[in-house]
Prior knowledge:
Distance between the termini: 39 Å
Structural class: mainly alpha
Strand order of the largest sheet: 7-6-8-10-9
Mean pLDDT: 92
Largest sheet: 5 strands, mixed
Shape: globular
Oligomer: single chain
Low-confidence stretches: 438-456
Number of helices: 29
Amino acid sequence: xxxxxxxxxxxxxxxxxxxxxxxxxxxxxxxxxxxxxxxxxxxxxxxxxxxxxxxxxxxxxxxxxxxxxxxxxxxxxxxxxxxxxxxxxxxxxxxxxxxxxxxxxxxxxxxxxxxxxxxxxxxxxxxxxxxxxxxxxxxxxxxxxxxxxxxxxxxxxxxxxxxxxxxxxxxxxxxxxxxxxxxxxxxxxxxxxxxxxxxxxxxxxxxxxxxxxxxxxxxxxxxxxxxxxxxxxxxxxxxxxxxxxxxxxxxxxxxxxxxxxxxxxxxxxxxxxxxxxxxxxxxxxxxxxxxxxxxxxxxxxxxxxxxxxxxxxxxxxxxxxxxxxxxxxxxxxxxxxxxxxxxxxxxxxxxxxxxxxxxxxxxxxxxxxxxxxxxxxxxxxxxxxxxxxxxxxxxxxxxxxxxxxxxxxxxxxxxxxxxxxxxxxxxxxxxxxxxxxxxxxxxxxxxxxxxxxxxxxxxxxxxxxxxxxxxxxxxxxxxxxxxxxxxxxxxxxxxxxxxxxxxxxxxxxxxxxxxxxxxxxxxxxxxxxxxxxxxxxxxxxxxxxxxxxxxxxxxxxxxxxxxxxxxxxxxxxxxxxxxxxxxxxxxxxxxxxxxxxxxxxxxxxxxxxxxxxxxxxxxxxxxxxxxxxxxxxxxxxxxxxxxxxxxxxxxxxxxxxxxxxxxx
Length: 664
């Protein structure tokens, strides 16, 4: 684990320096958080380019680290050096002395860190019985990411091809998994590298989200509330929990330690807690969201700036927007849906502030310089069918539920608090107009209460329009082959809503005892269901075996004894032992392939024919160039594998009920 921590620190240093190229007034902690994700995105992209030229090895990874750290040179230039020392002294000053506020701030971050540490420790762990996960939605995603990571670290998968569908371009945003593979090339373990990265990225999201909400609302309390509202998100599932508690005979303590199901995702609920359904399972989003928030936060600062102020420093503004655009341009291979969200937000801001067209164009140029080549590369030779990524579909994943009840059940008080937040902003905007002010005023330093009552106005409401548009479009159309994947867009609607909810809760907290109690109750109701699901994972109640012990052993053996570019035939399942080899499969889980828009039907039929044996099987084995065939309990049950036929081939490896035959 020490190797992963040291590598992450080196990469963060480069990203930390980059923040000084576009942000003047941010805290040292924010720069570390932003630096960790910017550095990772840069490092992953540079590693990809170097590996395309010379393969992924210790040399190319080391070179990528050196190049990622190169921006540190800007810290030796004035006035950046002065700002760095100012930020450093300010950070040290916050640690000196003791006060109630400092104690509460420390407790907030310490508790958050411990929760995230315990939660992500359940992403993957190994015992004598195999590889397990504690995430109820991670059963299919974990082997997918393991297969992708090992295909880079052990499978010579450059240029990147889809390890789950041989012969097709790997068009899934893979930078997060490539970064893990790079760490492994320098000696880190798979589980340790994933764990350290996941925790650091989640902590970075906490810091960046908090600052993002403070920047939009001017209210530090609203900023503090935003991360728990995101990480513990959920709907009315706690009511179902109370019903289950009353219907069983165990005591409360025993039931809490052995929760039988999730209360934010399942047959009754589709929204899902963000940690359970998104950040543990979709590593690309866990890295891409912070980059997106950094960019959106900067666009907000431009959006609310008077045109005259922009004009006075037009050259600086254009350069900085270009740099921010370059950072956003890294997203196609990090998380493509995040780039699509940024496109929508930028388009709205462009038309809302046409007077700033030059800076918007500068941002767009920066994005295109990196994003267009990445998109062109990923789309060329891809097996994904673009037509499957848009189709009119009303109600997202509401199924037969009434759409209004569906959203109330899944999100609880989100919409009532959103409406209340909008009301407060409009009221404050009218008050500001009477006082001769307009828009949003800057928060007064060191005064949370003052800033929260003065902040508000139409600027934030206009800024919210693209987020609301995302909600609408995700409820009238499928933006992916599988409708539930609209969550990748809907989560940004929720992110855009958090400043308004946080603002409303912070206002209630300061308006007397009765409203303070109401604010506490509302916060509890907004996070109760998500807390139950997160606790279920942390407590270890959800112990799901992904690979059995024999699959792990045969995977390790094949990784050492087969060629890095070997092609395997296996049953199309999510947890094939082939994923542990780093080698490519002719075909794996149809659910993943369908969600990526791949027409796998004809190949699936050929897989069944090959497992049936006979003359047709022989011809297909040769046509596809199959090197090895796996026969395990899965192939025997789902494929009805003709073992007497494959017995004519030599056995390459055998462990327990797992056999691998060498075809050529």
